Amino acid sequence: MLPDHDAPVVSLYTFFQVGSRNERPGITGISHLFEHMMFNGAEKYGPKEFDEVLESSGGRSNAYTTHDATVYYEDFAAEALDTVLDLESDRMRSLTIDDRSLRSEREVVKEERRLRVDNEPAGLMDEALHALVYQSHPYRWPVIGWMADIEAIRREDCEAYFRTFYAPNNATLWVSGDFEPESLLRRIRKAYGDIPRGPALPGFVNAEPPQRGERRAELRHPSRAPSLLVAYRGPQVTDPDTLTLDVLQFILGVGEGSRLQRALVYGKRLAVNVGVDWSWRRDPGLFAFHLELQPDADVRAAEDALYAELRRVAEGGVEPREVEKARNNLRAHLLREFTSNSGRAHGLGTYELLLGRWEHGLALPEAYGRIDAARVQAAARRWLDPTQRSVVTLVPEDGQG
Asked: Do strands 286-293 and 271-278 pair parallel, antiparallel, or not at all (unpaired)?
């Protein structure tokens, strides 16, 4: 509970510790499917009533699914707090799961997959990359799921998944805004107190074998230009190098003045854009580079130019001013998030989920301040290892280049 009386508004976040990491072949995508199913009505509020009731109170809602979590959130006027607690507890207690709602949301998810993956080069490349990097870990499949699995998920699968992962013992509420904590706690107990615990959560074993050399894949798809997606195996979120890689990400690829933008976009003019993706994950993740190339670019030359810049960091290090700029940007991002009710609830909820304690998130600005150029160079040497590299190349189909 994060009281703030500056304005009569409240944000409520519900974090469920379930994502595609908790799925198995045959039901991939079920976590994301539930993101849609959760708006289809329950015992007290029927189909489509969730948003109707919330919006009539001046509120709004949304949700998202990741590899590690599923999160639902609402922003609303403080006077609607009891209504929102009633809405959220109703669907946790008695979500409607029937063949009709499953058929309806299945079609929505299939269309979303066609739009974001099957007909989108970046989505296809990301899907191919994860299947290339991970051999046994659930990060292998996309959060949205494989199309055949989406089509095969049964009502019985949904009922078992809901009972296991959408129970109160697997959920955390974060409420920020205009309320009195003692009163709110009584109201939460009233709304949720009779919802039974779910069964014991299944254990998880990370059986991913070590990578013993570079891996490559090639995709052919209609596109105006070739693209490259290059990823290196990274650490899990609790590794000390995670924050150092945050700094390295900013130095290499965030902003017009970043190293890769200057070298590959404005310097050699091989790419029209370079993105660096480093996301915190509960298990070892990926430090990835996405290069959208010029239509006539030499793909091999672009790849070699990328590796030359990465070697420059690993062998020659970075400038203290680059580290300071990255640290300042990271600290500013953290502080901006805490300027709103929604940002505070989301940020602290994420830290609790991934770091184990929300207090660790409050220490991040100081932790970033301790990262220097030597630590960045050491992390680059450790993690940008060519033997731990995977490369996906998008080749435009004939007549599309």
From this structure: antiparallel
Catalytic residue among 23, 35, 105, 303: 35
Q: How many domains does the chain have?
A: 2
Tell me, rounded to whole angstroms, the distance of Cα 293 from its chain centroid: 25
Q: 60 lies in which domain range?
A: 2-192
Residues 253, 290: Cα–Cα separation, whole Å: 10
Q: Considering the entire predicted model, what is its pTM?
A: 0.93
Reply yes or no on whether 35 is catalytic.
yes
CATH code of the domain in which 336 resides: 3.30.830.10
Angle at 130 between CA 124 and CA 136, to 5 degrees: 140
Q: Which residues are within 8 A (CB) of 362 and not within 5 positions of it... i.e. 6 or more apart?
A: none
Q: What is the pLDDT along the chain (401 residues), one digit of tens a residue?
A: 999 999 999 999 999 999 999 999 999 999 999 999 999 899 999 888 899 999 998 899 999 999 999 999 999 999 999 999 999 999 999 999 999 999 999 999 999 999 999 999 999 999 999 999 999 999 999 999 999 999 999 999 999 999 999 999 999 999 999 999 999 999 999 999 999 999 999 989 999 999 999 999 999 999 999 999 999 999 999 999 999 999 999 999 998 889 999 999 999 999 999 999 999 999 999 999 999 999 999 999 999 999 999 999 999 999 999 999 999 999 999 999 999 999 999 999 999 999 999 999 999 999 999 999 999 999 999 999 999 999 999 999 864 44
Q: Three-state DSSP class for 63?
A: strand
> Looking at the domain assignment, is residue 199 inside a domain?
no
Q: Are residues 388 and 349 in the same domain?
A: yes
Residue 45 in any domain: the answer is: yes
Let me know whether 176 and 227 are in one domain: no
Q: Is 78 helix (H, G, I), strand (E, B) or coil?
A: helix
